[in-house]
Design a protein that fits this description.
Domain Isopropylmalate dehydrogenase-like: 6-351
Order of helices and strands: EHEHHEHEEEEHEHEHEHEEHHH
Protein name: D-malate dehydrogenase (decarboxylating)
Strand order of the largest sheet: 2-1-3-12-11-4-5-10-8-9
Number of domains: 2
Bound molecules: adenosine-5'-triphosphate, magnesium ion
Shape: globular
Number of helices: 11
Enzyme class: oxidoreductase
Organism: Neobacillus piezotolerans
Mean pLDDT: 95
CATH class of the largest domain: Alpha Beta
GO molecular function, one term: D-malate dehydrogenase (decarboxylating) (NAD+) activity
Strand content: 15-25%
CATH architecture of the largest domain: 3-Layer(aba) Sandwich
CATH superfamily of the largest domain: Isopropylmalate Dehydrogenase
Length: 359
């Protein structure tokens, strides 16, 4: 039976363009391996370059154009001279919010062939998932600046935690820990000793949703201690759930302990599947290496694997991940960030060869 998927393809700026091309090549290789998989792409040139020509990151009906696709595959947006808040509020945040991608999912898994930046025991078991609340929390635009230029100069910003928003992210996290977790363990980040309204609220709902998943062992850990444990005992985690800001910080830390920006993938998931989810590498446009053909496409290729998983193509996602790890392990086609000499496309070609070899 043929399975058709339509993907909104947004390469964006800088190395986003280079790495996303490799992800697409890998998806094409999977389609030739499995004749039933048919992927159609619609390409969008929305980017900072588009912004410089048009004054907006995407057209007014941009979200409508994306709505009907099965997934959104995004490279990176960013360009020197264009402020980050323009690309963020002009493209990424509207997509995440409008399409209710309230789960930001980032695997923290040490791939075979990657030399761990941390030394220590048990790193072969380093494989967990961080879920960041992606729609509310500390990232609200509620607040303001007062008495500027006086002795009383001050700024205030509010955080918003709603029952609806907190319950849905926690339920997703508990359900994941219960169904897929190797250790059936959930760690929730908090700071209820210092932040005494929103964090106790968050903790209360952690306990409440935990009662729906009694098989999951739960710990509620202060964010400061949790950050330290990411470094001292990362192999002890299974599913970690955190608010928008805490999750933002933890996920970058997670990316660092499994080998850095060239490796780390992320998914913005709408679990109900009533809107498309979006898959993007953690790294940005990296203007310093853009156009040089040396960006590591591992993160982008892993993102394509996460996309296949989300679409229910579990076997092909597994073939992709196995092929990717074989190339990393063999080490002959590594990009310079991993100590190799290969170009972005040589790495991508090698992954495709491994995939086609499984036919
Ligand atoms: P942006 O403004 O779009 O976020 P940035 O300058 O912050 O871009 P990042 O992409 O966040 O750049 O990455 C920081 C640095 O890490 C880059 O300048 C680059 O040297 C390195 N880097 C990031 N991604 C990769 C990759 N895929 N392969 C190799 N090096 C990378
Ligand atoms: Mg950056």
């Amino acid at each position: 039976m043929t399975r058709h998927y339509s993907i909104a393809f947004i390469p964006g700026d800088g190395i986003g363009v280079d790495v996303l091309g490799e992800g697409r090549k890998v998806l094409d290789a999977l389609s030739s391996l499995d004749g039933g998989l048919k992927i159609g792409y619609q390409e969008f040139d929305w980017s900072c370059e588009y912004y410089m020509n048009n004054g907006v990151m995407m057209p007014e009906n941009g979200l409508d154009q994306l709505k009907g696709h099965d997934s959104i595959y995004l490279g990176a947006v960013g360009y020197p001279g264009v402020p980050d808040h323009v690309s963020l509020w002009g493209l990424l945040l509207p997509i995440r919010r409008q399409f209710q991608q309230y789960i930001n999912l980032r695997p923290v898994k040490l791939l075979r062939g990657i030399k761990p930046p941390l030394a220590g025991k048990g790193l072969e078991d380093l494989d967990f998932i961080v879920i960041r609340e992606n729609n509310e929390g500390e990232y609200s635009s509620i607040g303001g600046r007062m008495y500027e230029g006086t002795e009383m100069d001050m700024a205030i910003q509010s955080a918003v935690f709603t029952r609806h928003g907190v319950e849905r992210v926690l339920r997703y996290a508990f359900s994941l820990a219960s169904s897929k977790g190797k250790r059936k363990k959930l760690t929730a980040a908090t700071k209820s000793n210092g932040i005494n309204h929103t964090m106790p609220f968050w903790d209360e709902y952690v306990r409440k949703i935990n009662s729906e998943y009694p098989d999951v062992a739960t710990e509620i850990t202060h964010i400061d201690a949790l950050a330290a444990f990411f470094v001292t005992k990362p192999e002890s985690f299974d599913v970690v759930v955190a608010s928008n800001l805490f999750g933002d910080i933890l996920t970058d830390l997670g990316a660092a302990i499994v080998g850095g920006l060239g490796i780390a993938p992320s998914a913005n998931i709408n679990p109900e599947k009533n809107f498309p989810s979006m898959f993007e590498p953690v790294h940005g446009s990296a203007p310093d290496i853009a156009g040089k053909g040396i960006a590591n496409p591992t993160a982008a290729i892993w993102c394509a694997g996460m996309m296949l998983d989300h679409l229910g193509e579990y076997e092909l996602a597994a073939v992709l991940m196995e092929s990717l790890q074989q190339v990393l392990e063999e080490g002959a086609a590594l990009t310079p960030d991993l100590g190799g000499k290969a170009s972005t496309w040589e790495f991508g070609d090698e992954v495709c060869r491994k995939i086609l070899g499984k036919g």
